[in-house]
Amino acid sequence: MDISGAVAFAPEEGELRRLADGVYWSRLPLPYAPFHVNCYVLDDEDGWLIVEAGIDSPDTRRVWQMLLDGPLASKPVNRLVVTHWHSDHVGLAGWLVAETGAALIMSDQEFSRAWKHCALGRTERRAQESEHLRRHGADVRQLAPWLDAGFDYLSHMSPLPSAYESPAAGTAFRIGSDTFRVVHLGGHSPAALGLYSPSSHIFICGDQIAPEFVPSVGQLSDSAGQDVLSDYLSSVLSIRDALPADTLVLPGHQEPNMNLHESIDRIVAYHRKVDGRILETARDAPISAAELVPLMSRKAADDVWLGFTISRAIAYATRLTTHEHRAPDRRGRWRCRALPHRRALMTNSERNTMPDSPDDPRFQLVAPESADSIRALVCEELGPPSNLSLRTIARHTLTPSSVRIRVHAAGINFPDVLVIAGTYQVKRPLPLVPGSECAGVVVEVGAEVDSVQVGDRVLAVPLVGCFSEEVVVNAIDVFRIPDALSFASAASFPIIYGTSGHALLDRGRLREGDTVLVNGAGGGIGLAAVEIAYAAGATVIASASSAEKREVALRHGASYTIDHTSENVSSRVAELTNGRGVDVVVDPVGGDAFDSGLRSLAGVVVSW
Ligand SMILES: [Zn+2]
Prior knowledge:
33% of the residues lie in helices and 21% in strands. It is α/β, with parallel strands linked by helices. It has three domains: 17-120 and 154-258, Ribonuclease Z/Hydroxyacylglutathione hydrolase-like (Metallo-beta-lactamase, Chain A, 4-Layer Sandwich), CATH 3.60.15.10; 374-492, Alpha-Beta Complex (Quinone Oxidoreductase, Chain A, domain 1), CATH 3.90.180; 495-607, NAD(P)-binding Rossmann-like Domain (Rossmann fold, 3-Layer(aba) Sandwich). The strands form six sheets. Strands 1-2-3-4-5-6 form a six-stranded mixed sheet, with helices on one face. A five-stranded mixed sheet has the order 7-8-9-10-11. Strand 9 (192-197) and strand 10 (202-206) form a beta hairpin. Helix 8 (228-242) runs antiparallel to helix 9 (260-284). Residues 1-6 and 352-360 have low confidence and may be disordered. The structure holds zinc ion. Zinc ion binds next to helix 3.
C-alpha cells in the first residue's frame, strides 16, 4: 500500500485526509506538546465510525464543528471509539455523543478509570499521588511543580455519557467491505482498545506504539502494585508476533507510518537497556524508585516531569522485583538480583534461535568410573526414544552465573520427543542429553549467584540436559520450591503450567467471570489450563475424547464437558453460553478442534 503521499501532508484543521479506501485522518488541537491528537474516521457506508474525541477545549470544539458541518455532514456518526481514558483522547466524548447521537465504544476498565478521575477532586488526586510516590522514596516537596502542573483532568473533560459499549477482544466491526477487529492493549493504560484489519493490515493503536519515542508506562496510584510494564511489553511483543511488517500504523499523536516492527524493536531495546542499567545499580545496594530517576531520563532534572519519571521507575521496580516477592522497605528501597526472565523480553523468532543456556551445551562422553563423571541419557542418533542410551559423561563446568543441581526428577514433555527425533523447531547438535525441566537440590553455585544457596530444593527449566544425574543451569532459570511440593510434581510443573498460564493470562487476557473452552482437556497442558482458568474465576467448558478424561476435567475445575467425538462443539458451546460464545479458547490440539473453537468464540483463540 502506498501511503507516502498521505504521510507527507498532515491534514489541515477541519480536513479529512484519505489514507486508504474508507480510512481518513484528521487532527485535533491540544493545548500542550505534541499539540495535536489524531482522529481517524472510517466510512461504514451508512455512517461514520470515529476513533478518538480529543481534549475538551474551545479550539477542539471549533475544529469538530468544522468537521461535522464539512466533510462529515453527508451522513451520521454511528460510533465513537475511544482508545483510552486519558483526557486528550476521551475529553470531548460526552459532547460528541450528545451532538451526534453516536454510540460510545470504550473498554470497561478505561471507561471506569475516566469516571473515577472525574469523580475525584483535584486535592484528593494530588494527595493520593504524592503518598504513592512518597512510598517509593520521592521527596514530596520536590514534586510540587509536577503536582501543580497536572491533575486538571476535569477541566479537560466534557461530562461523560452514561452509556457505552465495551467490546470483547476480537469483536468485529464491519466497515464497508473491510472488517476491523478489536485488540486489547495493556500497559500504557489498563485496557486500551485498538482496531486492526487483517485484510488491509491497518492498525489503529492509540498511544500503545509510537514511531519516534517510547510510550510512557508508569505506575501511578491507581495502578499501585500492578506490573504495568510487563503488561505493556507482553502486549507489544504479541503485536510484533501477530501483525505483519507491512502494517499501516495509525498512532495517537504521530504520523501514520509503516514502521510497526522497527518501532516495537526500538521500544523493547530501550527497555532492555534500562533494565540492564537498573539491574547493575540495584544488585549492589538497596535502592528506591526515586533514586533510579537519573538512570531513566534526561528530562529528570525538569521538575514538571519528575512525578512521571518516578512513576516509570516504580513500574521498573515492580517488574524487576515481583518475581522475587519482595516489597520495598520503609524508605521505598528494594533490591533486585536478576531480570524476571530473559525470555520475557523476546519475540518468537528471537526465542527460537537463542541458545538455551549460556553454558556450553556440548559434553564429553567418558569411560564409566572416570573421575568427575555423571550418568545421563544420551541421544547420539536422531530417532525414537528407544535410541537413547545410558552413558557416562564428564561433569559440566560451573560458570559464575550458574547453579549445579543434583537431579531428583525430570519432566517428560512432547517437545523432548521432537528434539530427539530432530523435528523440533530448535535444532541441536548431537550428541545431546534431552530433558527440558527438572527438580532437585542445589549442590554448587557460581560466584555471582545469590538467588539460591547450596541445599535449596529447586526446579529448573534449562530446556535441555535434564535426563541426567546433574545439570548446570543459569541461575535465572532456577526457582526455589516449597517444602510441600514433591520433586516429581515440581519437575513436571513449569512447562505445562507455564504454557497454559501464558496462553490464558498473557495471550488470552482471561478475566474473572469469563467463559473458557479448553480443547484437549485430558492432556497435561489442557488439564493445567482447566485448573488455572478455574483458579482465575472463569467458567470452564472442557472438551475431551473419553469419558474418563472428561471426568478428570470435572474434578479439576471444569463446569461442563463436551465429547467432541459425538457432539457438535460449537452448537453445544452456544447452548451453554446462551448463544454468546466463550471469551477464550485454549487450543493445544489444532485442526478440527481449532475450527470449532473459532465458531464458538466471542473473544480470543490461543492456539500453538
Ligand atoms: Zn495521547
